[in-house]
Amino acid sequence: MVDETEAGKGRATPSRKEAEAARKQRLKTPSSRKDQAKREREARETIRNRQREALKTGDEKFLPARERGPVRRFARDYVDRRRNVAEYLLIFLLIVLLMGFVASGTGDAWVGTATVFTYPLIIVLVVVDEFLLVRGLRRELKARFSPDETGGTASYAVLRTMQLRRMRLPKPQIQRGAPLRDRY
User: Fold this and answer.
1) Which of 156, 124, 122 lies closest to 137 in space, CA to CA?
2) Residue 132 confidence class, pLDDT cut points 50, 70, 90
3) Which of 20, 49, 159, 171 is the most buried (most CB within 10 A)?
């Protein structure tokens, strides 16, 4: 015997009359501009909600066009599997800012000197890390994809590294340090 809770679609099949009425309602042109605008607004909101949910779950079918495709998925995984200096840039810069306030408030020369040297050091570390990331990403993209598919991927990856890992959308689908899968 088939269990009724597992089988079926969870609702009654509409009668032919009901199905035709629903189809005609969808095809019916709105009577006023206000109704048309309301219908379009609801359609846009539905699409936006689907995309927002897809950004959280990583569902490829409903992602925005900018995030879709195997090349972008590979770039996201490539960035998400490693620690990046740029994702901590904001935190480092806040610390340098606080060090500057302390130096100006207390008049300690060593704090001022540390602030002056720390800021450019952080920027150099970020630039070097991004250079290594882009070089490695381009090498992997060249090995896995054709050149006409990979346009703009390096800048996409650099922008993704600037975000804290937990704030990234689409959410990371790979753990740090995990090997890249061959699902691309």
Assistant:
1) 156
2) very high
3) 171
| Largest Cα–Cα separation, the chain | 85
Torsion, Cα 137 139 144 145, to 10 degrees, reads 80
Q: How far apart, in whole angstroms, are the C-alpha atoms of residue 142 and residue 135?
A: 11
Task: Write the Ramachandran bin of 177: left for phi over 0, alpha for psi from -120 to 50, otherwise beta.
Answer: left
Q: Tokens standing for 170?
A: 């689409």
Other beta carbons within 10 angstroms of residue 139's beta carbon come to 10
Is this model's pTM higher than 0.85 or not? Answer: no
| 150 contacts: CB under 8 Å, gap ≥ 6 | 71, 138, 141, 142
Q: Report yes or no: 122 and 46 within 8 Å, Cβ to Cβ.
A: no
Q: What is the dihedral of CA 71, 75, 80, 84, to 10 degrees?
A: 180
Give pLDDT tens digits for 28-37. Answer: 777 788 988 9
Q: Which long-range contacts (CB under 8 A, 24 or more apart) does 113-120 make?
A: 119/93
